[in-house]
Amino acid sequence: MNVTAGIGILEKAAPMITDFFADTSTPVSVTAAAGFVALLSAANMAGRIGWSSTSDLIGRKNIYRVYLGVGALMYALIALFGDTSKPLFILCALVILSFYGGGFATIPAYLKDLFGAYQVGAIHGRLLTAWSLAGVLGPLIVNWIADRQEEAGRHGASLYGLSFVIMIGLLVVGFVANELVRPVHPRHHVPQPKEADRVQQSESA
């Protein structure tokens, strides 16, 4: 959910900021739009370092509460007020992309907390499969809806309103899913070598 929401805004970033402020007295130039995309890429990179480091202090589950809960709030602010203020639009988009990068960097540690180190690589590989699907879905949702809205005669920020509502919904679903995550029950833990020897000896006896 976090990836779908994050990459959804990244893939369409340049035309999106242009459309949002096309009807204002200070439209966004092509050069400025390209600079905006560069800023988003920098926020993505910075989020990988900053937010993953923050997770060491506040915990993995809490940092995902931030990614998903605050991310939904940022999308809501863009949807409601994004076309009235360029600084607000840019700030919210930068935060969303920093969460996208942070989520990518934090998940291996979160998986280790939940499952331990044993086979965490294989578990992470399965997660990356879902991540790849999310990377396709995000742009598909935003582009398809924007195209349909344009065919209906809409323009500007109204091209993306429905997309943002969907992204907010996805982030809320992700937030609830994160709340439902629990560590694996101890009965599924792989015994440590000494413990395994004791278990084997007791079974032999």
Number of helices: 8
What structural category arises from helix and sheet content?
mainly alpha
Major sheet details: none
- Residue fraction in strands: under 5%
C-alpha-based Rg, rounded: 21 Å
- Tell me, briefly, the overall form: elongated
User: What CATH architecture would you give?
Assistant: Up-down Bundle
CATH superfamily: MFS general substrate transporter like domains
Question: Secondary-structure element sequence?
Answer: HHHHHHHH
Level-1 CATH class name: Mainly Alpha
How far do the termini sit from each other? Answer: 51 Å
Mean pLDDT: 88
Q: Domains counted in the coordinates: how many?
A: 1
- Portion of residues in helices? over 70%
Structure notes:
Helix content is 80%, strand content 0%. The protein has 205 residues and is an all-alpha fold. It has one domain (2-204): MFS general substrate transporter like domains (Growth Hormone, Chain: A), CATH 1.20.1250.20. The longest helix has 32 residues, at 120-151. The radius of gyration is 21 Å and the shape is elongated. 32% of the residues are buried. The mean pLDDT is 88.
